[in-house]
Structure formats: C-alpha cells, structure tokens
C-alpha cells in the first residue's frame, strides 16, 4: 500500500539567521496531504512564516529540500507557481480603487480574462460590494479580496500565513468560513496559526511546531479524541471504580463523583461503560467521551520538547490514537 503523495512536503528543512545564532527552522519534515485544510500550528517565533517563505522562494533555506505538487522548489518553482496562491504578507491593494478594479488589474497582469474576476468575487462573497472603493472595506472584506486575488489562477494549493490576524470577530468568521469552503472544494489549503481554537474549527489535519521543530502531525479529530477515555459521574464512586476495574478498565478517581475511565489496550466506549455499571445497579448521571483540547495537547507536546530538544525527529501522539502517521483527510 502506498500513501498518496503529499501536496506539500519538506525534508530536513533548516534556516538560521545571524550567522547561525538564531535557528528559525530546524530539520523540519512536513507532509501536507492533498485536499482539505492543513494547519501549521505553533507559538510566536516558532518558524511558521520562515517555512512558508521558504516554500514560496522568498527565503533561501540553509539545508533541506521541498516539493509542491511533486515539483522541487525553489529550483523548479516556475513550473508550479501557476498552481499556487499565497498570502504571506500584507497584500497590496489600491485603497482608492474598487475591489473589482483591483482584481481586474491583477487579472490583466497575469493574462487572465476579465470574467474570471467576477467568478472569484462571487466565490468570496463580495459581489454586492465589488464596485465600492477598497478604503471603505472592513479588514475582513479586504482579506477576502486578497483571498479572491489568490484564487484568480484557480490554484490547487493555497498558502496563507495567519490570515485572520488583526481581524475583528466578524472578519475572523468570514475568513475561517472561506478557508473551510476552499478545503471542502478539494483544494489544498496550508494555513498557519498560533490559535489552537482556530485550528480546531478550520483544519482537517495539523502539523504542530515548537522552536522550528515538528512536534507532531495528525488529523485534528485524532488529536482531540482524548485517548479514548470516558468521563463518568456516578455514586458511590468507590463502588463504581471497583466494578469497572474488575471488568478490565483503568479508572482515575479525583475524590469527587467523577471518574475517568480508560482501557489499557483500546478506546473505552461510553455505552460499554454504562452497561458494566448498570449491570451492577449503578446508574451514571453523566457519561461522555473525554475531549482533550488542542491547547492541552500543545502544552503537553511543547513541555516534552523542552526536555528532549536533542532528540531529532521527535513525533509524539496522544496514547493509542495512531498519532505520528500522516493524517488522511476525511
Ligand atoms: N529576517 C530575520 N532575521 C533574523 N531573525 C529572524 C528573521 N526572520 C525570522 N527570524 C527569527 O526566526 C524565528 C522564527 O520566526 P518566524 O517569523 O518564522 O516565526 P513565526 O512562527 O512566524 O512567528 P509569529 O507567530 O510571531 O509570526 C524567530 O526567532 C525570529 O525572530
Ligand atoms: Mg509569522
């Protein structure tokens, strides 16, 4: 069985600044699956922008290789650039011209028919405002216009560096919705973010980096399955813990009526846990799978990374969830 080729891949990618004093990206192996939204998640200064700039030929790596859609970059970037749209810095827009005119200039510059402009304006939901000056646009609308510009060539791959930065909640919502739609339409969207909640909302898969290194790459759903544990509220908790332990479960008791129930080998199923308790005459008042937040996962991974910075190619994952494998896109 062969894995489908990633849309974007980096191998041993490395970039230092100030004659090696600052390591921005260290031996980074990324594999972005084709189709869907892939988040590139890391705190400030972890090397996200540097990586995206290297992919786009704006910064030269010290070491490593990269491919976009199977084409070596930056060596053969011109062979693939027409299939890639990107926003890595503030897009330049002419404020005293309409959104429509801004896009028409761009379309003309890259030799595209004028009708294409109307397609992309509709695609980002700006049709009603297209003839107004950009200076009257909200930041969210400007960002949507910038996204429309990247869509002119109808690219297969989109690369956005923190596209919701600086937007108000309404603008953030607009842009996130757009990203999800683009991913759902079959395009490969690589989007960097330092916001865990954002990644949970928009991404199918995520690569998490800390200090320029890959910590893990997993499907977002797998990251959040809480390692197959179930939280149960039941009285008396001690009796319930005995019953569940006898049935082969691992039980965590926190001194209240709340139990955390797992299995040593597989995921604990809420209905199976309920049955075991019910057969012993114990009725839970609450029973739900444990949802570990991305924030918990991130802090756990970063904490471990601090302890093992020497270890190359570290790849951790939540227990038993198959993390570390390149995630497929549902
Ligand atoms: N041109 C440069 N000269 C010197 N150091 C740089 C340069 N560009 C980036 N760095 C350093 O490299 C590291 C990674 O920076 P980078 O901008 O890639 O991180 P980031 O993950 O995009 O951060 P943020 O979330 O703040 O955008 C940081 O320590 C940064 O200070
Ligand atoms: Mg950045």
Notes on the protein architecture:
The protein is of the alpha/beta class. The protein has 11 helices and 14 strands. It has helices at residues 48-55, 77-80, 99-109, 115-123, 139-151, 169-184, 196-202, 220-223, 237-246, 270-279, 294-307, and strands at 8-17, 22-32, 36-41, 63-68, 71-73, 84-87, 157-161, 188-193, 205-210, 213-219, 230-233, 250-253, 258-262, 286-289. A hairpin with a 2-residue loop joins strand 9 (205-210) and strand 10 (213-219). The two termini are 18 Å apart. Bound molecules: adenosine-5'-triphosphate and magnesium ion. Residues 48-49, 161 line the site of magnesium ion (MG). Residues 17-18, 22, 24, 42, 44-50, 194 line the site of adenosine-5'-triphosphate.
